[in-house]
Amino acid sequence: MAFEYLSEQINQRKKQSLFRQRFVIQTSSERFIEIENKQYLNFASNDYLSVNASCTKLDSNTKQGSTSSALVTGFHQEHVDLENYLSKLMGYESCLLFSSGFSANASVLKTLMSNSDTEIFQDKLNHASLIDGGLASKAKMSRFRHNDLEHLTTRLEKSDSRHKLIVTEGVFSMDGDKAPVSKLKSLAHKYNAWLMVDDAHGFGICGNTGLGSCEEIKPELLILTFGKAVASSGACILCCNEVKDYLLQFNREYIFSTAMSPFMAKVTQDAITEVVNANTQRNKLRHNINLFKISFKKNCAQFDVQLLDSGTPIQPIIVKDPQLALDISNQMKQKKIWLTAIRPPTVPKNTARLRITITAAHSESDIACLIDALVRVFENNL
Ligand SMILES: Cc1ncc(COP(=O)(O)O)c(C=O)c1O
Fold first, then answer.
1. φ, ψ (nearest 5 deg) of residue 181
2. Which one of 32, 80, 97, 242 is most buried, by most CB atoms within 10 A?
3. pTM (two decimals)
4. Torsions phi, psi of 62, nearest 5?
5. Is 127 a catalytic residue?
């Protein structure tokens, strides 16, 4: 039989407790989601500042579809406005919009690293889109241990490639910790390399004014995605004019794909304006994150699990075994709390985890409910 490997691999995923499923969200509000007619407190949202509840209403003058690639007739005034707004906000010469963060990361790496004398230095925990982009490029790929500057230095020292690019996330999506971006920038400078930061989870959250992980340094390439704190969708690269010109000529995903919807560009600009001004939510978010961490340490110290050291909304609890992660997340659902079990291959083997995300919308009693439920479920399973 042809294609028997499909069912073989699906069955293998099931046997290893690694099978993934989708759930239909019937309704969602700032703190709750409804699934299969049941309501849950949501601890799995990336809408960290809770801007999704309040943003743009439909504007009948803005088109829902761009109708073609940006290089044909798909480039609208809303795109120009958003690109200019972001360039100015973030202090870059240029900005280019993409329909998703995945396509921005993967296509930028593939396109820019098209010379055989190039090398990409990637943090081992970088997002799949960065890894895929690197693999699809002509560059040599060197991976360094997570946030390990010494290991990266060794790799840079050994390299005889002419064009070097260090690639990291600003806030790591599955661990919640931050990259040492200033030190990475200094290293890049020392070794005549460029730095690329994917700040999908840092923009809106980190930095004194919420502009993200790179408020104090300027990597040559900065990727922002709009599906997390901005609560819309799409992404952009911030860069110099020359890189933008190059991407416009050679980035196949940008050239041969329908441009982001103008409506989405407008919604995104309004949402970013809200995010920039969301100091009250950012303070509340910090308060909630601290409250969760303190309460977890106080109430869950006796259990054989590890809360990773993260000061961001992403708070992972490592339980190691994928089936245990699934069992705990299912039992949390019975207690009306939604959180996600993250299993390999999304994370390394033996590090299956519960990925809790804290938002500004959560109340102190929501966090108390979460801790209480975790304690009871841990007691049953550990
Ligand atoms: C670090 C990181 N980069 C990129 C992406 C991809 O962004 P998008 O969802 O816009 O494709 C994600 C998650 O989805 C992410 O967590």
1. -65, -35
2. 97
3. 0.97
4. -95, 130
5. yes
Q: Is 198 a catalytic residue?
A: yes
Active-site residue, selected from the candidate residues 76, 79, 110, 127: 127
Tokens of 358: 């804290």
In tens digits, the chain (382 residues) has pLDDT values of: 899 999 999 999 999 999 999 999 999 888 999 999 999 999 999 999 999 866 555 566 788 899 999 999 999 999 999 999 999 999 999 999 999 999 999 999 999 999 989 999 999 999 999 999 999 999 999 999 999 999 999 999 999 999 999 999 999 999 999 999 999 999 999 999 999 999 999 999 999 999 999 999 999 999 999 999 999 999 999 999 999 999 999 999 999 999 999 999 999 999 999 999 999 999 999 999 999 999 999 999 999 999 999 999 999 999 999 999 999 999 999 999 999 999 999 999 999 999 999 999 999 999 999 999 999 999 999 9
User: Is the distance from the beta carbon of residue 200 to the nearest atom of ligand 1 less than 6 Å?
Assistant: yes
- Residues 77-276, CATH architecture: 3-Layer(aba) Sandwich (3.40)
| Structural domain spans, the chain | 19-51+279-381, 77-276
| Apex 169 CA angle, 180 and 167, nearest 5 | 85
The full 3-state SS of 177-215, as one line of letters, equals CECCHHHHHHHHHHCCEEEEEECCCCCCCCCCCCCCCCC
CA contacts within 13 A on the Cβ side of 304: 6
362 classed as catalytic: no
Please state which CATH number belongs to domain 19-51+279-381.
3.90.1150.10
